[in-house]
From TrEMBL:
ATP-binding among keywords: no
Name of the protein: Acetyltransferase (GNAT) family protein
Keywords from the named record: Transferase
Annotated source species: Natranaerovirga pectinivora
Coiled-coil portions: none
The UniProt record lists the keyword Transferase: yes
Domain N-acetyltransferase, residue spans: 1-86
Gene3D superfamilies: 3.40.630.30
Length: 86
């Protein structure tokens, strides 16, 4: 985890393939959110542009795509940036 301006930025979340689609990703995001509850009014995360399942999860739990960051990951594609206001 790092900071994006003065806000937390989650750059990587990974769930073992055997445990996907079982709620673990959602729980990890809840922990991430709870860590900053009452400290900041928004949190950010990035996702690889080709990871449609992760993007769908982030939208489902209330994140919105707010931009793209070029060159963040080795794939050399722009990585969507999402945030969630609280």
């Amino acid at each position: 985890m790092c900071m994006f301006s003065k806000f937390p930025l989650l750059r990587l979340i990974a769930v073992n393939k055997a445990y996907r689609r079982k709620g673990f990703g959602t729980e990890i995001l809840k922990i991430y959110e709870s860590k900053y509850k009452g400290k900041v009014d928004r949190i950010f995360l990035c996702v690889s542009s080709f990871n449609d399942k992760a993007k769908a999860l982030y939208l489902l739990v209330g994140f919105k795509e707010v931009g793209k960051i070029d060159g963040l990951y080795p794939c050399k594609r722009a990585s969507p940036l999402h945030n969630k206001r609280r």
